[in-house]
Amino acid sequence: MKSLILGTAALALTAGMGLAETVRLGTEGAYAPWNFVNDAGEIDGFERELGDELCKRAELTCEWVKNDWDSIIPNLVSGNYDTIIAGMSITDERDEVIDFTQPYTPPDPSAYVAQSADVDLENGVIAAQATTIQAAFVAEQGWTLVEFATPEETVAAVRNGEADAVLADKSFLDTVVGDGLVMLEKSESLGGGVGMGFRESDAELRGKFDAAIQSMKDDGSLNELIAKWEVSSQW
What we know:
Blueprint: E1 23-27, E2 30-31, E3 35-37, E4 43-44, H1 46-57, E5 62-66, H2 72-77, E6 83-84, H3 92-95, E7 99-100, E8 110-114, E9 125-129, H4 133-141, E10 144-148, H5 151-159, E11 165-169, H6 170-173, E12 182-188, E13 197-198, H7 203-219, H8 221-229
Parallel strand pairs: 1-5, 1-6, 9-10, 9-11
Antiparallel strand pairs: 2-3, 3-4, 7-13, 8-11, 8-12
């Protein structure tokens, strides 16, 4: 699951949203199988199905909003939508700005994809999506990092030789291996599970979704959804 490294966020709205209003779910729509835009131009994937079910259980009317990854937290804080459901890992750094539900998936391993299984990661060029914990991890190792705005661009960089490998969530890279790309045996354990993000002023709304997530864990339906979309290990 992807993790945003926070930049400077806008100030939160002074009042929380009214629960009687339509709840706007913010997602990237570019990270299959977690979330993506289908051929009909609609948000699809694991988190679309999960979000719709959570809204049903919480007895809320919801609508989906697509937002670029690099501004997804600032635009939540500034009120463009009411929650983030976008493969976002729960981190201490992020928790200083927004609040989270309990995780709805365990951490998804981060994996490497390259054109050759014997690529030298330490001396090569590693691509990662900007403002993710994968990008932060590569930088922390002292390796050469090249960042891109979208996950598709990181993969394209490996295909065209601009990068030697890409580091990203394994569930995403599973969708791109083949056609000259191989997944390395090496993987990294990053992040602390994926949860929904909320403005700190929206504790009541967060509580409704938290209870809905727990109900799906309790009846096994969340594990069924995780298995269907193959986004992570099960609970």
